[in-house]
Amino acid sequence: MNKIKVYLDSGATDKKFIKKYCYICDFYQYPCDSAHRTKSSSINLAYPSEVQWRDANISWAEDSYTWGDCKGSILLSEIKNIIGKNNRRDALHLDSAYKTNCSIFLTSDKKDIYSNKKILEPLLKIKIFHINQDINEFELHLKATLDGPLIYHKFNKQILDTETSSR
Questions:
Q1: How far is residue 149's CA from residue 33's CA, in Å, rounded to a whole number?
Q2: What's the CA gap between 125 and 104, in Å, rounded?
Q3: Quick check: 166 pLDDT over 80?
Q4: For the whole model, what pTM was predicted?
Q5: 119, HSE (Cβ side, Cα atoms, 13 Å)
Q6: Are 95 and 79 in contact (CB under 8 A)?
Q7: Under the phi-then-psi rule, with left for phi > 0, alpha for psi from -120 to 50, and beta for the rest, what region is 50?
Q8: What are the structural domain ranges in the chain?
Q9: For residues 79 and 84, what is the distance between their CA atoms, to the nearest angstrom?
C-alpha cells in the first residue's frame, strides 16, 4: 500500500496523532522553526526550501541534503505573496511540503496558512487541515484517498485499536 504523504508544520507534531496514523501516512517535516521539535522515528526529513544556516535545526546525522538542495521551488515567491513576505518560515514549510510531493499539510497556524487555504490548495495541489479543528475532515479525506475496501477496513481497525488502547 502506498502511504499518504503528510507534512507537519512545527505546531502539528503531536506524538499520539503520529502514532495513530503512522500505518497509513508517511509524515514529513523540515525543522526550520526550532531546535526544540518533536523527534520521532515516524517523521521523515522533507526536502528543504531556501533554508539558511540558522534554519537548519537538524543534526549532521539527520542531514542528507546538500546546500544545492536547499533552493526554493518555482512556487515559493507566489507562496510568500499569498501568506505575506514577513512569514518566511511558514512559506518554507509550505514549499518543503510541495517539493516533497506531500498531498496533505497539517498546520496549527490559523493566521497565515489556514486562512489562505482556498488560494494555497489549488496552487500547491495539497489539502490543508488544521490539526485541532479539522480532524474529522482529515479522516474523511484519508478514507476517500485510500484504495479499496480492504485498506479502508485496515484503516478503521487501526483507528479503533489506537483509540481503545489509549483509554
A1: 39
A2: 9
A3: no
A4: 0.79
A5: 12
A6: yes
A7: left
A8: 4-165
A9: 8
Residue with the three cell numbers 480532524: 135
- Residue 62 in 3-state DSSP? coil
Cα–Cα distance list, 149 to 22, 25, 135, 138 (Å): 19, 17, 21, 18
Rounded distance between C-alpha atoms, residue 19 and residue 101, angstroms: 22
Residue 86 CA to residue 89 CA, distance in Å, equals 9
Q: What is the pLDDT of residues 26-39, one digit of tens each?
A: 999 876 555 555 55
β-partners of residue 45 are 29
Eight-state DSSP code of residue 50: S
Q: Residue 128 is inside which H or E element, if any?
A: strand 127-130
pLDDT band for position 85 (cuts 50, 70, 90): confident
Contacts of 135 (CB under 8 A, 6+ apart): 129
Sign of CA dihedral 137, 108, 59, 100: positive
How far apart are the C-alpha atoms of 109 and 32, rounded to whole Å? 15
